[in-house]
Design brief:
Elements (H helix, E strand, L loop, with lengths): L6 E2 L2 E2 H9 L7 H14 L3 E5 L4 H13 L3 E6 L13 E5 L5 H14 L7 E4 L14 H22 L5 E4 L2
Parallel strand pairs: 3-4, 3-6, 4-5, 6-7
Antiparallel strand pairs: 1-2
Length: 171
């Protein structure tokens, strides 16, 4: 029995996931089909990637911009350095996504910078850890982890839901 595709609207998330994270079967025709299909899904769209300063967020942002043809808004609490070749497809934004007010201002700024085009792809990669034993974790550290890993994706998605067609979470 064949599994039903996982979709949001008309977007097959399995195909987009394979496109964003990388091809599983690099030299197969199946992989090429997924890649080309994913390219068509994001080409010309404006995508927001949180946690884009490094790691998975950076890799997804670069793949969306260079191979997918998307205009990428890279968001992180740290300053993001971009090369000259990426300046047309990628733009960096510094924002602490733990604050709902800052999220709202961020979405307005991204829309303004992309000539009024609302972002239609949101990829939440921002995440932190404060490793400690249960009895040693302070309330402040707990709040930091919950605010970045749970609250920020929730409010980003909430404010983006009316505008977005694709929402993915990675952590």
């Amino acid at each position: 029995m064949k599994a039903a595709p996982v979709t949001i609207g008309r977007v097959n998330l399995r195909r987009l996931f394979i496109f964003c994270v990388g091809e599983i079967f690099e030299n197969s025709k199946k992989s090429f089909h997924f890649f080309m299909r994913g390219r068509m899904l994001v080409a010309g769209r404006t995508a927001i990637v949180t946690g884009a300063a490094r790691g998975i967020g950076r890799a997804i942002a670069e793949k969306l911009a260079f191979e997918g043809g998307a205009n990428v808004a890279m968001v992180d609490v740290e300053e993001i350095s971009l090369s000259e070749e990426s300046s047309t497809a990628m733009k960096s934004y510094t924002c602490d996504v733990r604050s709902v007010d800052k999220i709202s201002k961020l979405l307005d700024k991204i829309s303004e910078d992309h000539e009024g085009v609302q972002p239609s792809v949101l990829i939440n990669c921002a995440g932190i850890t404060r490793d400690a034993f249960l009895w040693k974790m302070s309330e402040e550290n707990y709040d930091d982890v919950m605010n970045v890993n749970m609250k920020a994706p929730f409010f980003l998605t909430q404010q983006q839901t009316l505008l977005s067609t694709i929402v993915l979470f990675f952590d």
